[in-house]
Amino acid sequence: MSGSIHLRGSIQRRLIVQLLTGAALLATLMFLVVQSYARDLAGQSQDEILAASVTAILDSAAVRNGDLTVDIPYFAFSMLGNISEDRVFYSITRNGDFLTGYPDLPKPTAATDTSPRFRTDSYDGESIRMVTATRRMSISGQPDFIEVTVAQTRYGLRQQLAGISRTVAGFGLGFFAIAALFGILAAQSAIQPLRQLAGSVSRRGLSDLRPVSAPVPAEMEVLVGALNGFMGRLKASLSRSEDLIAEAAHRVRTPLTTVRTQAEITLRRVDKPENRQAVREMIRAIDESSRAAGQLLDHAMVSFRSDHLEVEEVEICRLTRDAVSRVVPMADLRDIELDVTIPKAAIYVKGDAILLQSALLNLLDNAIKYSPPDSRVYVHVRAVETGVEITVQDNGAGFPKADMGRLTRRFVRGSNTETVVGSGLGLTIVNEVARAHGGQLFLSNRSEEGGACARLFFPLA
Amino acid sequence: MRTIVLSIGLILLWWQLATPPVQAFEIEDHISVGPAEARQVLRVISNGDAEFFEPTIRDFLSTRPDVRVDYTVASSSELMVAMGREGHTVDLAISSATDLQTKLVNDGLSRNYSSSVTAQLPEWARWRDNLFAFTQEPAAIVLSRKALAGLPIPQSRQELIDLMREHPDRFQGKVGTYDLHTSGLGYLFATQDARTSETYWRLSEVMGAFGVKLYCCSSQMIDDVTSGELSVAYNVLGSYARAKGNLDEVIVMLPQDYTIIMMRTAFIPKTSKAPELAGMFIDHLIARGWEAAPGAVSVSEEDAWTGEAQALRRIRMGPGLLVYLDRLKKAAFLSEWSSAILQ
What we know:
The complex is a heterodimer. Chain A is α+β, with helices and mostly antiparallel strands. Helix content of chain A is 52%, strand content 21%. In chain A, the strands form 4 sheets. Chain A has a 5-stranded antiparallel beta sheet with strand order 4-3-7-6-5. The longest helix of chain A has 50 residues, at 11-60. In chain B, helix 2 links the parallel strand 2 (40-46) and strand 3. Chain B is of the alpha/beta class. Residues 1-6 and 9-22 of chain B have low confidence and may be disordered. In chain B, helix 6 runs parallel beside helix 9. Helix content of chain B is 39%, strand content 20%. The radius of gyration of chain B is 22 Å and the shape is globular. Chain B folds into 2 domains: 22-135 and 263-292, D-Maltodextrin-Binding Protein, domain 2 (3-Layer(aba) Sandwich); 137-261 and 310-341, Periplasmic binding protein-like II (D-Maltodextrin-Binding Protein, domain 2). Classes of the chains: A alpha+beta, B alpha/beta. Chain A binds chain B through residues 69-78, 80-81, 85-88, 90, 92, 99-101, 124-126, and chain B through 106-108, 127-128, 195, 316, 318-320, 322-324, 326-329, 332.
């Protein structure tokens, strides 16, 4: 069936892909934002500590004995060593003349005011961050400009950033993993009502065309509405055709009775053997047609009642006895003995008594019909663990092995039944009754004695 | 005949060209350990006595038959000069002057090295994975038992000042310490003292008032305390004094107010031609190098002397050490020291 369905894409897969893409984008964005924020923050803290170092050195500049002295405090550099193992360079100039430090340090940007100036440059093959500040001193009335530059390599910063990047990448991956998990779960739960609907529809019996009544999400309203509408139309069309069949059968059967009676009368009047034979064949054909019409009516009845199953407590032992007593005349006619084993205790199943009776009658009818004259038909009712089992066995030819699987289909008859009148609907009826009651029909052949064995199972009430 | 003369001349000329250029720095000593024909040569420059380092070198070479170690001794300041010169190959620089070593590393003259051994080092014993400490040696006060007879042993700098003031007769002209102008180690100890406590300046003034004698090296100070020429020597390498001094004659005291701990360090110069071998030698020094400095303690003993000294101050490797090496700062410090101690 599914081979003829054209598939294009998958809602679930599309949902998952979209959710995962979103999660990946968000995780990447988070990574980039946090990383750039961390870079700013780390750079800022390096700038601050460098500025503090510069300020400490400038603060140590003093005029002593009429001359300028710069007494670099120990902590001005040791605090730089506290945060990282970066190399430190510095330079101190007075009015642009080099005083001490590293003379070849890159020149700082020109001063505009007294606030520290920051700059990223390279020195001795390494990227450095430089902070420079200028202070105006006054020595014996002459203005003096002391300029202090402290620079640090950015190795620690890079390491710190690498560490942060690793952590943030970990967070990003974790975020993505969680988002992905929820995305997959969300996609699955979104598709779940669809699966449930598909499951409940495909689990239905062949003739179950009731509308879907279980609550469905709003998004599926249209689909379920369409499905219900379609099933309604299908059901209407089916019941129309079944009505037609029943009506046709009914209309055919009534005149047939008249025809048969007339044929019987004619048979008594006719003397010529060849004419008698013709009339007998006529009667036989009428019987066959009449029976088929009856079975068709029966089947229509079974279909209808199965759809509108009226459930009541049915005592299966009494029901079986009734059915057996109804076939006794037919069995006597063919000298067939009915061997009936029914337990005394009552066994109840839930179901429609008329349908159950019809199923049993069909089984018994079949057994008697296909048994050779002067043989036995066994009827056996017994309670099993989960239900009740009614077995009907005969000494006939049995079911042909090749047909075993399809005997319950409509109008299918065994290949060895040509000589017996039949419509091909009996087992169909039995099977439909069994399924309508949640039971099952098992067909087999008796291995030792030969003959058919039909086992009908109903679950207990 | 002329060709032979020419050849000899050429050989001589080649010989002259092949020999290393005249050393641009002052060498104190030089030893070569290992086969002359060795395939690999490790050139070490150090301010540690060759006599003490030789066993360590031999130990290192015991598993390396094809290696020779050229060990050149120079003072810490000459070592600085040597490293600054172009065209002179050194594979490993070892010095007790932690500040100068730090500056060389800071100025980018060293190369990175790490191994499983260096990874085991405590944080304070390595810097930038360039500079590695392999000994711990405390700065001590060495006292003469004879001079102190009957007096309590001072436990701190302040107690030493008080004792000297109370008994000037026993200390006058018998006080010794490093000459900061000539000793890099003395300068390092003095600057660390000065930044730790003001007591150092008071002590310097008192020592100055008692006619302090200035020395270049710990060993001479220890000898003079042993002989009785000095009653007290300040900022002597305590480990060295314990190992080499006669403890019947001298008392080696770790000051209770604070004790400066010096660490011998090594780094591989950027120009090293045998960095891998130098790295192996660093690993060897970390494991066994403390044996090369008499009385020193291994860097793996983090709690050495804790029973003896209250406050250990390990000289912290890092940019802080650049401060006292600043030209102006050094000049100012030496001038202040001179005016305190040379009255």
